[in-house]
């Protein structure tokens, strides 16, 4: 009788254990289904975010408008004929007759706005210019670099290699930046009138030579009392005609 009751207890325990295992399995499947359902919208949302972030640079690139650097040189709503050459594109004719007036058809570049004489905006226009290359222009039509390493007071007069740039309102053929050999023409700030006045009044003490930066000659005139007056007279003549100049080789003001 006791053995029968023990067997029944074992069966009940086995049944209860089987029920718990089935309940555990069912709860695991339900959790996986819930996870799948919740993860699907999240993945879709993640994909949408990914696609949006991927396409964002494309839209930004399409919406961004870069302004070319030449636009800063172009006056807005000014006369088209007065635009700098960097603001237009012209059909130049190199077979024109040198020194004669020439007319060329031009068109403004993008982002450039100009008007005609009647204040009407236009894109195509003509310009009138003299048929000549840029390096053939007058010296007042271009700006060149200066050199302070050459001697302006020398025989023969020295030249230096300069880089010249045509002014904005001048039109010409060829390159607007060109090299050119120029005479030394820089100044150190010395005045011819001051040097001559010192030579006449205090030349016997070498004041003129000291002013021009020639301290050796100044000391020679100082201790020789202007070469007993002879050196003083010679310096007055040499400074007066411009033969004696500043020690740095520059021109008088």
What would you note in describing this structure?
The protein is built from 6 helices and 8 strands. It is α+β, with helices and mostly antiparallel strands and 253 residues long. Among the domains are: 71-131, no CATH class; 142-183, no CATH class; 192-241, no CATH class. The strands form 3 sheets. It has a 3-stranded antiparallel β-sheet, with no helix packed on it. The chain has a 3-stranded antiparallel β-sheet with strand order 6-7-8, with no helix packed on it. The longest helix is centred in the N-terminal third of the chain and has 62 residues, at 2-63. Belongs to the TM2 family. Pfam families: TM2. This is TM2 domain-containing protein 3.
Shape descriptor reads elongated
- How far apart are the first and last residues' alpha carbons, in Å? 140 Å
The helix count comes to 6
Strand order of the largest sheet: 2-3-5
State which percent range the strand residues make up: 15-25%
Query: What is the makeup of the main sheet?
Result: 3 strands, antiparallel
Which structural class matches the secondary elements? Answer: alpha+beta
Number of strands: 8
Helix-strand sequence: HEEEEEEEEHHHHH
Oligomer: single chain
Work out the radius of gyration: 46 Å
> What are the low-pLDDT stretches, counting only 5+ consecutive residues below 50?
32-64
- Helix fraction, binned, reads 25-40%
Q: Quick check: average pLDDT? A: 78
């Amino acid at each position: 009788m006791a053995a029968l009751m023990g067997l029944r207890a074992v069966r009940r325990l086995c049944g209860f254990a089987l029920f718990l295992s089935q309940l555990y399995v069912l709860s695991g499947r339900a959790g996986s289904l819930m996870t799948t359902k919740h993860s699907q919208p999240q993945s879709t949302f993640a994909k949408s975010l990914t696609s949006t972030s991927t396409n964002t640079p494309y839209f930004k690139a399409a919406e961004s408008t870069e302004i070319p650097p030449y636009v800063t040189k172009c006056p807005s709503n000014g006369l088209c004929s007065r635009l700098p050459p960097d603001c237009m594109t012209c059909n130049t004719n190199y077979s024109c007759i040198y020194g004669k007036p020439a007319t060329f058809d031009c068109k403004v570049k993008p982002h450039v706005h100009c008007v005609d004489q009647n204040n009407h905006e236009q894109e195509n226009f003509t310009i009138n210019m003299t048929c000549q290359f840029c390096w053939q222009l007058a010296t007042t039509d271009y700006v060149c670099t200066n050199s302070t390493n050459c001697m302006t007071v020398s025989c023969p007069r020295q030249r230096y290699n300069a880089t010249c740039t045509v002014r904005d309102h001048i039109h010409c053929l060829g390159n607007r930046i060109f090299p050119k050999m120029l005479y030394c023409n820089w100044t150190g700030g010395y005045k011819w009138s001051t040097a001559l006045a010192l030579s006449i009044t205090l030349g016997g003490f070498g004041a003129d030579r000291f002013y021009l930066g020639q301290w050796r000659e100044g000391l020679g005139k100082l201790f020789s009392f202007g070469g007993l007056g002879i050196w003083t007279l010679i310096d007055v003549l040499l400074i007066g005609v411009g033969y004696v100049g500043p020690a740095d080789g520059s021109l008088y003001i």
